[in-house]
Design goal:
heterodimer; A: five-stranded parallel β-sheet; 5 strands; 46% helix; B: 306 residues; 2 domains; two-stranded antiparallel ribbon
């Protein structure tokens, strides 16, 4: 059984590309198109890793991250932020909440994101 | 003379600050003289003189109110413009990243084999999507700089190592342009404090420019890093097309590109040097440019040693 990755991202086009790509790499991808669903799925499925966008409907990324950290069941799930928000404060906030990596979408290729995911899951 | 600027911003004459201040000045001189004249020669009653003065002062107040109001409108327009650029470029990034990742999947061959003839077109798609990505990135940076919403990290790092690594990343780009990169660095330079990523941006912009604007045929770009007067100096010298003398004072303005650039052949936004200057100056350094048209350009910047 492949490792479970929860992808919280409101762009369905990205959900498809990542779903395809990571699926081919042998991961099981669960997708959530908004923050609320993302949080529920995280609590229910306890994924091995969460890929998180920051601008999300219903519950936005940083808020969701805080909620994940408050819950003992989800507080240790590694989170990689994958976003287009290049804001110094947001970055600082996310790092303080213990995210493993903060990746700006325009700067990374799928292969590089995959590399980061593998690195995280190995540790 | 007053109207040119105001016409450009579509401001009517009665709101045009330079015109209003001119009238304001004239009125002040006139009212001082007039009240003196009236007070000494015509009216004996000091109350009436005082009232006339008060009336004139009120008039001046109204004039200056209009002038400052216009400044506020101009500042607000500028702020809205920056905000608009910021918002628009952010909104553009989502579709651009969707395209980028989709093209990557298609090109990886995982969704079916791609014929070599198709690959060429995919390459064009990929390059242009990356260009759009770079452009939006630059625009976001510019709007951040302009809105003052631009913060720099403080971290310790080895500057010459950063330069060396960045040069390595550009080696293929240089080869493609038939440019030979030469790097000299003073040994054992002390580390500096600053925003490593942003300073890397500056080096990238300058390297990109030096290579891009090198003349056709074999050419050399020389990069030097050394210490001078408690500062780290970076210097990059090319044998490129240069910048015409009279345009050099505009070269750090945003969207400015020199008139001798064959614009269809060399892509660029005119934002690079503006961004580089902003980052260097906010890091406590200075940036300088020397150039001779047809011979080449040398750009240098300094960063303070902590």
């Amino acid at each position: 059984m492949g490792k479970k990755i929860l992808f919280i991202e409101d762009e369905s086009a990205l959900q498809k590309t990542f779903g395809d790509f990571l699926g081919k790499e042998g991961f099981e991808l669960i997708s959530a198109l908004d923050g609320e669903t993302g949080l529920k799925l995280a609590e229910k499925e306890i994924p091995d890793l969460i890929l998180l966008d920051l601008i999300l409907p219903k519950i936005e990324g940083i808020e969701l991250l805080k909620k994940l950290r408050e819950n003992p069941k989800t507080k240790d799930i590694p989170v990689i932020v994958l976003t287009n928000v290049e804001d110094f404060k947001k970055l600082q906030e996310a790092l303080e909440l213990g995210v493993k990596a903060y990746l700006v979408k325009t700067d990374f290729t799928l292969e590089e994101v995959l590399e980061k995911i593998k690195q995280e899951l190995k540790e | 003379m007053f109207f040119k600027e105001c016409k450009r911003y579509q401001i009517p004459l009665y709101q045009c600050p330079s015109f209003l201040f001119f009238i304001l000045g004239l009125m002040t001189i006139f009212s001082i003289l007039a009240s003196y004249f009236i007070g000494t020669k015509i009216i004996d009653n000091p109350l009436i003189v005082a009232l006339i003065c008060l009336f004139l002062a009120l008039f001046l107040l109204i004039l200056s109110y209009f002038a400052t109001k216009t400044f506020e409108v101009l500042a607000e327009t500028n702020r809205i413009k920056s905000e608009f650029i910021h918002l628009a470029s952010h909104q553009l990034r989502t579709p651009i990243t969707n395209l980028k990742f989709a093209i990557e999947i298609l090109m990886s061959g995982k969704k079916g084999k791609i014929e070599p003839e198709q690959l060429e077109y995919f390459q064009i798609l990929k390059e242009n999507v990356l260009r759009m990505g770079d452009l939006t990135k630059d625009l976001i940076l510019v709007s951040k700089i302009e809105s003052g919403n631009f913060e720099l990290k403080k971290e310790e790092f080895d500057f010459s190592e950063l330069v060396e690594n960045t040069i390595k990343e550009f080696s293929n780009f240089a080869k493609a342009h038939n440019v030979n990169l030469k790097y000299f660095s003073e040994k054992d330079l002390p580390k500096i404090h600053g925003d490593k990523d942003r300073i890397k941006n500056v080096i990238e912009i300058l390297l990109d420019n030096a290579i891009k604007y090198s003349k056709k045929g074999e050419s050399i770009v020389e990069i030097k890093v050394y210490k001078k007067n408690k500062k780290i100096c970076f210097e990059i010298k090319d044998e490129g097309i240069g910048i015409p003398q009279k345009e050099q004072k505009h070269i750090f303005e945003k969207f400015f590109r020199a008139s001798n650039v064959p614009k269809n052949e060399i892509p660029g936004t005119g934002l690079g040097l503006f961004i580089a200057k902003s980052i260097v100056e906010r890091s406590g350094g200075k940036i300088n440019l020397k150039s001779e048209e047809g011979k080449g350009t040398t750009v240098s910047f300094t960063l303070p040693l902590s």
